[in-house]
Amino acid sequence: MLFQGFLNLNKPSDWTSHDCVARVRKLLRLKRVGHAGTLDPAATGVLPIALGKATRLLQYLPENKAYKATIRLGVRTTTDDLEGEIINSQPCAGLSLAEVKTVLAQFEGKIEQIPPSYSAIQVDGKRLYDLARKGEIVEVPVRTVEIFRIEILDWREGDFPELDVAIACGSGTYIRAIARDLGAILKTGGTLAALIRTQSSGFDLTDSLTLSDLETKLQAGTFQPLAPDAALQHLLSVNLPATSAQKWCQGQRVSLNSDITGMVRVYEEETRFLGVGELQDEVLIPQMVFEPIS
Questions:
Q1: What is the pLDDT of residues 45-79, one digit of tens each?
Q2: String of DSSP letters for 208-246
Q3: Catalytic residue among 14, 19, 40, 259
Q4: Which of 113, 103, 69, 109 is nearest to 187 (CA)?
Q5: 229 is catalytic
């Protein structure tokens, strides 16, 4: 069976995002498999997987994400999570939740953030984690990210207190950097102890499948990918009559009486998903034709 659409995968711990793609490719016997939004190996949670022609839709997915994170204070590591070597460890049993709340508020909104040294960002064509493993010190470029919401879920006191938070954020945000910077402001040190991505690119953890779930469904013959347009609901939609739909699928621009501008989902007579177009001055321009009409 040729699968076309999306898989909302719950990534297991200690697997890279690439590992997951390779496993899905093997299970489905499908060459064209891709993912949106890389997750660190230690993290778990939502990893959107595109199957078949849906890989061409990855660029149009919404960018917002949400996480549940555990931040351990009193510890600094090389990787800003527990996977790295400890740089400094200092008990901070006297730290109060009230102090943390005051500082945590500084992270909401648009903030400047320096990504971790161990990250996939490229500097001069080289991955930061490759440079860090070689002991090379480079200046990591500052980026502007947006944190929509940080909510405290739990607080556990002790020599190395832990804070559980829910974070909703925009694309490019490093939760490890938030843990590191929170510890720096509190002058205790901080590192990420655990991370679950609960939402990504329009997919939610509650609807996700584990790799074991996928295998079980494949063995039973019940697996069906999510529809290709399921991840594009943030885009407005337009409908074309049959004649215009055929022209559009052949790469032609078509006139459309609409006050919409920007990227849109395109359908033939409200039922058949054709792809993604861009509306400019009542002209619909093909951007990605998913389902051509012969």
A1: 999 999 999 999 999 999 999 999 999 999 999 99
A2: -B-HHHHHHHHHHT---PBPGGGGGTTSEEEEE-HHHHH
A3: 40
A4: 103
A5: no
